[in-house]
Every structure is written in C-alpha cells, then in structure tokens.
Amino acid sequence: MEIMAGIMRDHILALLKENKRVDGRGLEDYRDLEIKVNVIEKAEGSAWVRLGNTQVLVGVKVDMGEPFPDLPDRGVITTNVELVPLASPSFEPGPPDENAIELARVIDRGIRESQAVELEKLVIVPGKLVRVVFVDVHVLDHDGNLLDASGIGAIAALLSTKIPKVVYNEETDEVEVLDECEPLPIRRVPIPVTFVKIGQNLLVDPNLDEERVMDGRITVTTDENAMVSSVQKSEGGSFKLEEVMYAVDTAIKKAAEIREKVLEAVKAE
Fold first, then answer.
1. pTM
2. Tell me, what's the pLDDT at 9?
C-alpha cells in the first residue's frame, strides 16, 4: 500500500506541474454535484448528495426536550455521523471512530456558529421545553471529501425540514401538537469548502486518491454574507498565511456556486 501511495503521489505531483489533476479537473474545480431533498418519507427533512462518486444521505428528526442549562432560551441541535461499512473498506462497524466524530463536529460547528438555525424560535417553554433537532448523516459511498458532501447534505436537509406547530397551555401545562406544519426557521446557508495540500499545491474538493497522498487538509465554512463560521485543519502538515487566505477567498467563491445549487434543489422540490 505504501508503494502504491508513493507511485500515486509521484503521478499526482507530475500532473500538478501542468496544473492538471488525476480526473482531469482544474485545481479549483468541483466534481459533479447532485442534490435531492425530501428523499426519506418518515423524516421531517432529508437530502441525498452525490459529489463525484461520494454519496451521503442526511435525515433530520425534530423532537421536544429540555434545553441546555446554560442556554434556556435556545432550541437544541445535534449532529451525528455514521460511516456505513459498505461505503468503504476502511470503515468498520461499531461506535463512531475519530473520523466520524471529527466529521460530525465540523458539520455541527459550521451550522451552529453561522447561526443558520434560528434556535430562539424553537423554544416552547423557556428553560423547560424546546425543539431538539437531530441531524443524522449516513455515508453511503466514500470517494473523497466527505466533509463537503456531508455539510451540503446537512444544510439541504435542514432547509427542507417541516415541523408541526405546537400550542402550549399554561393552565394544564400540556403541549398540543397541531396537524399544520411550518418550515424549520433558517436564517443562513453555510457551505463548507475543503482543500488538500499536496506538495506546494492546494486542491479543491479532493477525491480519494488525492486524500490518500495529501500533506494536509483545511475546510472553510462560509455563509451568504461571506462570513467565515468555521475553519478546520486536519491530517497534519502546515499552511502558510497566504495559503490560508487563498483558501478563504476561494471558499467564499465556490460556496456561492454550491449554495445556488442547494437552494435550487430545495425550491424545485
């Protein structure tokens, strides 16, 4: 495996000298992106995303529960990731490993720190009862860049989410769930854009071959106001200041293109 990785790295580096990649893309080009929403009938919201040959399925369930003690006037959002063993030979059954945990945290941080979901509108009884939003990501096929595919799927699923209206009776301390539904309140559409560094080159949307030989990885999540909500560096290596600034500028540009596709998919449905 190490010999094969070395051969692939040399091949990739040789192509990069000509500003080419193994699949023919430019350094800033994404693979084909396909998005479908409302693909899970029993979920309040859902999305299927195919990025190249990488596929993820995201489901959103909304329940009622207690708020966090330090945030009594906010609803709760929690993100989980399952790396389905059938999606890759490197995935194993069992509890989430460090890769699944990192993936969930990056997705969650991008949504939470951008204040994408208006959590204050999910409060039913302050300090006592709020909406709890569960975002579950299932990786179906891994061919690189799970971060972007999962992040895109998560926000698409949230945008498609419908929740039943509720009425709280203070006298009886009971909550009545109505038949009428309303959209989950969303104010921002954060989109993650991931780069890998190979040699002195930064590549957008790495495929699996490129991830196997990368020197480092960085993901920048931005919203429609070009505000950065999260940055995640992983897999060792180092990035110069000018490389980070290039990544941020490029992420804003690429995120705008992806955001348009997400909104089109939600609107079409």
1. 0.94
2. 85
